[in-house]
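Take a protein:
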Amino acid sequence: MKGTIWDEIEVSVPANVAWELYGTLHLSRFIVQQLPTLVNKVDVIEGDGTTGTVLKITFPQGTPGIPYFKERFNIVDDEKRYKQSQVIEGGYVDLGYTFYGIRFEVNEKDENSCITKFTVSYEVEDVRLASHAFTMVEPLQTVIKSAKTYLTNKTHN
């Protein structure tokens, strides 16, 4: 079974400003600093934030389910402002998903605002696992909401 879940939010900053956060390793540092109950640490295993980068994301001790996952950036396109990654170890792969990918994108609305969007794509053989897919997006919703607040405050203060 294949599925896709997405969410988006309007942010009152220029698209290039939002992309400075989403399109770089700064997003990982932001999540660790601003959302420590969500992610404990992010280690760069390989790369510099461009296509091919591999990260190990470790969750706080006591987090139910999965202790960590490794993701690889399959595409980082600065011109079109999107980043596509795939879990390659741990995480949902260990839970039985045959594919789990995340895409972040920043789309210009006008010169002073943009739409930030994430899309989760997944594949599972066991249909029962698909029922957990909606809980998988809650952390990403938290990230884009927190990023909106951070970017808005940074730009307008």
